[in-house]
Amino acid sequence: MAINTAAGTPQYSGTFVPEIWSGKILVKFYANTVIPAISNTDYEGDIKNQGDKVLIRTSPDMVIRKYSKGQNLIIDRPEAPNTELVIDKAYYFNAICDDIDKHQSDLKLLDNWSRDAGQQMKIEVDTEFLSTTYPNAAAENKGDAAGIKSGDINLGVVGTPVVSTKANILDTIIDCDTVLDEQNVPEENRWMVIPPWMRGLIMKSDLKDASLTGDGQSILRNGRIGRIGNFTLYVSNLLSSASDTGNTCWHAIAGHKSAISFAAQMTKMETLRSESTFGTLIRGLNVLGYETLKTEALVDLYCLKG
């Protein structure tokens, strides 16, 4: 919209006040992605094409027997099946920057588009990853009777989700931690991914008292959650949600880095001249796969904001 002028004054916008393309681009916000933080890439290997497999060897369960002096020893032959990590997913982008548009601006359009495509691809992959991973949690690590030893920990089921409030949010997180304890999951490298509203409940909870976190400042001052129990907490707006009894419920997930293996490779990234018009094409292909290797190290918390 041009600058307003007084009555009877000609409008010279576009003549004496020309349009100028800014060399800066408006900052774009992206959802946080968490795959690199919560999965392992130990088996990424040399991925080149969609359809490749990574074969993962597993450790067998050794048999321990009581011994009596002079007895004949029983020989066991430990066996364990291999696990396959299949590279069965692929994402691409393909866009053209017309020569006229490119010359009308001094922006480095192709560089900007490449960065944006990379971020958008991460968001797309995270969204699918988070929506397809939580069902793989072991039966003892979800539902209203979780806990392989106790069997009395409520992590929510369809129809009766865990109602989270600032009064009980810490108890809920520790319940998830306890479920992993009962599965003998190592305490190091545990993680939990929560929706933004749950982070708000934590910051309104008793943890606002700095003495409870061991930090010098309250989380209300520094905005950092960090660790609760044995979990390093991550916030994601990409967690899977569903409508249940008229409310939006969420699948917050927790686990250990050994639970899920992820492998990806940007196999193609190229710029080339278009054959059908005057412009430059920019396109990329990303192939990937992920697999839950240890279901006992994955927790599904089905929850509702109270």
Largest sheet: 7 strands, mixed
Q: Which value, in Å, is the CA radius of gyration? A: 27 Å
The fraction of residues in strands falls at: 25-35%
Count of DSSP strands: 12
- The shape, in one word, is flat
Helix content: 10-25%
End-to-end gap: 46 Å
Describe the protein's topology.
Elements: H1 35-38, E1 53-56, E2 83-86, E3 89-98, H2 99-103, H3 109-133, E4 162-164, H4 169-182, E5 190-194, H5 196-204, H6 210-213, H7 219-222, E6 227-228, E7 231-235, E8 241-244, E9 247-256, E10 260-273, E11 279-292, E12 298-305
Parallel strand pairs: 4-12, 5-7
Antiparallel strand pairs: 1-2, 3-11, 5-9, 6-7, 8-9, 9-12, 10-11
Describe this structure in words.
With about 300 residues, the protein is α+β, with helices and mostly antiparallel strands. It is built from 7 helices and 12 strands. Strands 4, 5, 6, 7, 8, 9 and 12 form a 7-stranded mixed sheet that branches. Residues about 220-225 have low confidence and may be disordered.
